[in-house]
Design goal:
There is one protein chain. With 476 residues, the protein is an alpha/beta fold. It has four domains: 128 residues, Rossmann fold (3-Layer(aba) Sandwich), CATH 3.40.50.2300; 151 residues, 3-Layer(aba) Sandwich (Rossmann fold); 69 residues, Orthogonal Bundle (Helicase, Ruva Protein, domain 3); 55 residues, Arc Repressor Mutant, subunit A (Orthogonal Bundle). The protein has 20 helices and 16 strands. The chain has a five-stranded parallel beta sheet with strand order 2-1-3-4-5, sandwiched between helices. The protein has a five-stranded parallel beta sheet with strand order 7-10-13-6-14. Helix 1 links the parallel strand 1 and strand 2. Helix 5 packs antiparallel against helix 7. The chain starts with 5 loop residues before the first strand and ends with a helix. Bound molecules: adenosine-5'-triphosphate and magnesium ion. The site of magnesium ion has 3 residues, from helix 7.
Length: 476
């Protein structure tokens, strides 16, 4: 017996129906037959056949009519039977989407091979379709953005409008406001959704490595380049490239990026032939990029190229109305993830949430509730179950905590990526602002600055040179 194949055979020549039906039934394939086109069309609409074998010329409705009228979403492979000498029709049949055609008189074994191929093809198509559906659903699920405040509603509208276009989007917002989530939502709702979204964070990658991460390199481009490597632009081809923290990009990489944006092509490091790519760009920054443009730290031309559609995500403290809904969403999410009893928030807990400063924005809220769900034995979370972060207007976070959180963020994003020499990468970020600020305070007086810093003058001079601190800038 054959594995569950169900076919339709339609012909006005009853002797053909009889032969074909008997042949396939013997092979264990279920056959339904139709004596004319109208009947065949009806049966197709109401049944789920694995394949249909249809005569091209039938009174009332021809095989070609059926091909034109059938709902393409039905995914039914149709095999057209033609009489000899009607090649024109055969071509027409294939053009209209027939799976195959066969000329009469035909060998039944030959028809059997075609029918089985058609049924297999239908099965594969269905699998692919369901995978694509699941993938799409997953992408959209991953990108749930909560917010009933007016600003967030406006942002949703912009996402909806901009998604199907290829316009470059620049997302502004403090850390933890949901910039990456928005980028993912734009991609998931775009025509590129089934192609990759590739993210690269300029702040988390040492400056010297950013260029090779973006553009890749040829074998032998530099010592250690033992294999050619594709950069993020190539990996994102046909999809979206999310450029996170663009404010941290060096001017050098900025010019190279500008070139790709303008020309849609680039060179791998050490490469001689240009590589063209079709990539949609979404960028994000938590810095005041317009100020960076004024101060010539960010190229103005690149800024205009990226800032085609700006989306400004306000900090959580400026849209407090979103807090209860976000809190409810996160509680639900953690409960589902952990298979726990549903926890809810007491009135005083909600009041507490309104009083916090939320310097870490939505991410901070998410983390706090996560901890509470895990640690609290109570089904209803009260104020005392919540960690107490800084109240609004209260003292700033201790320095160590600020640095700790920022580093934690950077390191969590490395995920085994090519960051070597973390010390050399991170320490200048601490030293440069420290020395610059002290020099500012002493109005550029290095003797006083060295004293304040508690290091000797020569060390200070060396540091200023090494860290490329501009004395003009610092002494202002
Ligand atoms: N509106 C929102 N609805 C649901 N979850 C949100 C929302 N905004 C942010 N989040 C969640 O908060 C966390 C931080 O969001 P995301 O990474 O998108 O922020 P970000 O702005 O890119 O932050 P950073 O600048 O630190 O990279 C994520 O876990 C995200 O799922
Ligand atoms: Mg981010």
């Amino acid at each position: 017996m054959k594995k569950n194949i169900k076919i339709l055979i339609a012909d006005d020549d009853e002797s053909i129906l009889w032969v074909v039906e008997r042949f396939f039934t013997e092979k264990g394939i279920a056959v339904t037959s139709a004596k004319n086109g109208v009947k065949a069309y009806e049966l197709i609409k109401t049944n789920d056949f694995d394949a249909a074998v249809i005569d091209i010329t039938m009174p009332g409705k021809s095989g070609l009519d059926i091909l034109s009228e059938i709902d393409k979403g039905k995914n039914l492979p149709i095999i057209i039977m033609t009489a000899q000498g009607t090649m024109k029709n055969a071509i027409e049949a294939m053009r209209k989407g027939a799976f195959d055609y066969i000329t009469k008189p035909f060998d039944l074994d030959e028809l059997e091979v075609i029918v089985e191929k058609a049924a297999e093809n239908k099965r594969l198509n269905e699998q692919v379709r369901s995978l694509k559906g699941r993938l799409k659903q997953k992408l959209t699920e991953d990108a749930v953005i909560i917010g009933n405040s007016r600003v967030m509603q406006e942002i949703f509208k912009t996402i909806g409008r901009v998604s199907p276009t290829d316009a470059t989007v620049l997302i502004y917002g403090e850390s933890g406001t949901g910039k990456e989530l928005i980028a993912r939502a734009i991609h998931a709702n775009s025509l590129r959704a089934e192609c990759p979204l590739v993210a690269i964070n300029s702040a988390a990658i040492p400056r010297e490595l950013l260029e090779s991460e973006l553009f890749g390199f040829e074998k032998g481009a530099f010592t250690g380049a033992s294999e050619e490597r594709h950069g993020k632009f190539e990996l994102a081809n046909n999809g979206t490239l999310f450029l996170d923290e663009i404010g941290d990009m060096s001017l050098d990489v900025q010019s190279k990026l500008l070139r790709v944006v303008q020309e849609k092509e680039f060179y791998r490091i050490g490469g001689k032939k240009p590589i063209s790519v079709d990539v949609r760009l979404i960028a994000a920054t938590n810095q005041d990029i317009e100020k960076a443009v004024e101060e010539k730290r960010f190229r103005e031309d690149l800024f205009y190229r990226l800032n085609v559609v700006p989306i400004k995500v306000p900090p959580l403290r400026e849209r407090q109305g979103d807090i209860p809904l976000l809190a409810e969403y996160f509680l639900q999410k953690f409960n589902n993830e952990m298979g726990m009893d549903l926890k809810s928030l007491s009135k005083d807990a909600v009041d507490a949430l309104f009083s916090y400063a939320w310097q870490g924005n939505v991410r901070e809220l998410e983390n706090m509730l996560h901890k509470a769900v895990i640690l609290s034995p109570n089904p209803i979370l009260s104020r005392s179950d919540l960690a107490t972060p800084k109240q609004r207007g209260a003292q700033k976070e201790p320095l160590e905590e600020v640095i700790y959180n920022r580093l934690e963020d950077i390191i969590s994003r490395l995920e085994g990526k090519s960051a070597h020499e973390l010390y050399d990468m991170i320490l200048p970020f601490m030293e440069r602002p420290l020395i610059t600020l002290v020099l500012k305070k002493t109005k550029g007086n290095q003797i006083k600055a060295a004293e304040m810093l508690g290091i000797n003058r020569n060390t200070l001079r060396k540091k200023i040179k090494e860290l490329k601190i501009s004395l003009k800038e610092a002494g202002k």
